[in-house]
Structure formats: structure tokens, C-alpha cells
Amino acid sequence: MNGYLNESNFLMVEEGFTTRDLLENLLGELCQESEQQAFFVADLGDIMKKHLRFLKALPRVKPYFPVKCNGSEGVIRLLAELGAGFACANKAEISRVQGIGVPADRIFYSSPCKQVAHIRYAATHGVRLMAFDNEVELSKVARSHPRARLLLGITADSIPSAHPSMTFGTTLKSCRHLLETAKEQAVEVVGISFHLGSRGLEPQALAQAVAAAQLVFDMGAELGHHMHLLDIGGGFPGTEDTRAPLEEIAAGINSALDLYFPEGSGVDIVARPGRYYVTSAFTLAVSITALEEIPTEQPGSDEEECGSKKSLVYHLSEGIYGAFSCLLFDSPCPRPRLHRRPHQRLLGVLPTETLPRAALAQQQPAGPAGARRGAHRRRAGAAPAARGGLAAFREHGSLQHANSIPAQHRAPATGQLRHVPHGLENHPALPGKATPDRR
Known about the structure:
The chain has helices at 19-30, 44-57, 73-81, 91-99, 116-124, 135-144, 172-184, 203-222, 246-260, 275-278, 303-307, and strands at 39-42, 61-66, 85-88, 107-109, 129-132, 149-153, 188-193, 229-231, 268-271, 282-295, 310-316, 336-339, 371-373, 382-383, 398-402. By secondary structure, the protein is α/β, with parallel strands linked by helices. The strands form 2 sheets. An 8-stranded parallel β-sheet has the order 4-3-2-9-8-7-6-5. Strands 1, 10, 11, 12, 13, 14 and 15 form a 7-stranded mixed β-sheet that branches. Helix 7 packs parallel to helix 8 (203-222). The protein is elongated. The chain starts with 18 loop residues before the first helix and ends in a 37-residue tail after the last strand. The model is unreliable at 159-166, 342-370, 376-396 and 407-439 (pLDDT under 50).
């Protein structure tokens, strides 16, 4: 043990004790306290298995976990214990990781758009590995952190992004100019970084990206840069219900690396798996605070016909301004599983402790479709139709959402959480009223 984990900080369970078993026990205790807040349960054993699986599938690749994906202390401590590095997006994330003792040489300041104050903070705390993809960013680093070791971010994704403003990386045409400028400003460029994301983890796309990186490596070497590090980004699947399992994706990555950066070439490979590690490890429990019937909209039907068909809308104790903020981007809505006991109406609050040896909750039978809304009354807080998995019932109960990730800067709105994603410890709960009982 390297000292990152202290077992007294976590809830230890017996072999065979599952997340569902723990939820049963917790809900039995908390439902008597008339609390409505949502909470997460995390399975550290699942993260450990994911790590070992990653190392086996990609033996040449060192994982750097993106802290913005899930800043829970239990996750960070476990991955630090396992020897992973950390990709940090700002000063606060660097401070969080270094606060548990992770050395600076295992931290990658991966944001391509950095504040000068944060660059200076990294410099004073020994964090040298950084990313850039434009001349302005290069100049900021040259002025504020001349000892930095930079990775040039390139765009190698042939698939147009659904959010163009979120696309980073320079084109191959601009690489030589940026490498020349870095040389003129005496800034060390040590490698290339790209991020295809889950949309681009196809063998052909991967091969094209690695080939493009090899071309830029040659450019850098010609200009006198010591190029020895390749970052292949993230996008690895976090659940098994994906088009391609990790091993199939890894085969394509290994093939491309063997072709363009074979062993013995002196190039180290890193990646940034985020959702891969934590998606299946986290289960979110929420309470159903109210329900209402609304007319079902039928295309081409008049109002009278629409009014005869109703659908149920369930109001939850968590919304898109909290744990369901993933719905604003590209994540699918987590699948709900009904959990209800006689006379159980509300849930309580659980500190987000972790379960080193717990298994995932088992699948429950799907029920009729319904729609869900979050804790905030605005319709923008509504979640899409459940399409199975949410039973049409008339009494309050609770739902479990497996494969949930505490979103960046988000957590269930409660002051009792001890392990929460970065940024919420000192912030009040988001504004909004709980939806009244409409039964």
C-alpha cells in the first residue's frame, strides 16, 4: 500500500454483499427519517477490476484519469494507490490530487485553455506536463511556465462534433508553425495529444489519428524537439452494452501503435479513460416526490383526442442541474430500477462512501414507460421518457439509477455529502423548490 487509501475512511463489506444489498439496508434505515435527498453508492471493487482489465488489454498504455469526470475522494485515492496518473483541468483539480500526496510527475495539466494564474500555480507546484493547441496558449505558457513540457493537441477526428465549440486541437497544416514558434520561444514540446472520444474509437479512425501523430512527431524531431510522449485521449466504453467491448477497441489501438510507434521507438503512450472507470461503479438513488398525469401529445390529433390519453410524469429529488446534468450533453439517461417497500415514501441522505468489494445491483424487470422530472420545477429539468424500467405506480417510492456518474461540479443537493465531485463542498444547494404532491 502506498498510503493513499485508509480503510477506516470506507465502508468494508463481505464477499458476495452487493450494492443492492447495501441499498436495501440503507433505505430501510433512512426511510424513517423523512428525508428526500438523493445519494450515490460507489463500488471501488468495480473500479479496481476496470483498471486491471485496462492494463491487460493495453499493456503499453498508462492511464491518466480525468479528475473532471469524477472528483470523488474515494475514486482519486484508489486510482492513486493503483499507480494511475491524473489529467487535471484547472488549479483546483491539481490541488485536490496533490492534496492526497500524488507527485507532480503523475499529473497532466490537460486543459488546452488555461488561466495564467493557474499556469503559474502549476509551475510553483512542480506540474510540468501541459497541453496546447494554438499560438496564444503557447505564448501564455512561455511567459508563465518556461520549464513546462508541452503536448501539442491535434484534431484527428473525421466525424463532425455535435458541439463544434467543444472541439479542441489544431490541424496538421498548423503544426509546423506552432512547433517552430515553440522552438523560437524556447518551450519544450515533448509529444502529441489527440482525443477522438467515444464517436471515433473505430479501427480506421484510430489508425488515422495515430498516423497523423507520427507525422507531427517527425516534424518536431526535424525542428529539434525531443518527442517521446503520445496521448491517445479517452472515450473508452464504461458499460458492456456498447457496440465494441474494450478488448476489441484495444486490439485496434495496439495494432496502430505497433505500426507507427513500435516498442523500442522510445515513445511512451498514455490515455485518459474517465467514464470507463466510474460509470458502472456508481449507483444513484433518488426518491419520487410527486407524480402527475398529463395529456399525451399525438401528432395530427386535435386537443379533445389528446386529452383522452394520459401519461404519468414522475418528479424526482434530483434533476438536470445536479446528477442528471449528463442529459445536457451526449450521455444517455441512466436506466431506472424501481425500489419500493410497504409504507416507504422518502429516502434519506448517504455520505458517498465507497464499497471496495461490493458487486453491482442486479437488473430488475422493466415496467411501463413513464417520464421523469428533476427537483426543479422548470420543464427544462425534465428527463426524457424512461421507455421501460419505471413502473406505473400510484404510491411514492424510490428509484435506483445504475451506471450513473456524479457530473463535473455537480452532486445531489445536500450538505451531508462528504465525498462529492470537485466544486460543491463550499457552494450552497442550487435554487429551486421541490415539486408539491399532486396526487
